[in-house]
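BUG: 3D viewer hangs when loading the predicted structure for this chain

Environment: internal workstation, default settings.
Expected: structure renders.
Actual: progress bar stalls at 90%.

Input used:
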Amino acid sequence: MRNKNNILSFALTHRLIYIFIIVCSVSAILFISVKCVKVTASNYNINNQHTTESLNKYYKSIRIDEGDSLWSLASVYSYEGYQNEDEFIAEVKSVNHLHSDCIHSGEYIVVPYYE
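Structure tokens produced before the viewer hung:
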């Protein structure tokens, strides 16, 4: 009888260990899944558009047309990766070695864009 109780106790202990391992494994999988979903969700802005974290930054040369200004170019080429249009303009001025905000039609400047 005592041998039978030992066998039942041994089986119960192993069953509890297996249940513990399964519960820990499922918990770890759920935790990792929630973290992955959270990271993926943070790569989207409110309008479900990708932020610059998933886009590449490129530069291109454009010709300045009559009536263009750095602010009009910022409204066309500036992306959400910039805090504001002034930050975009500062980068355009730096890349093109501009010391003022003046640009003239017929000139070419380099502007950043994301794709």
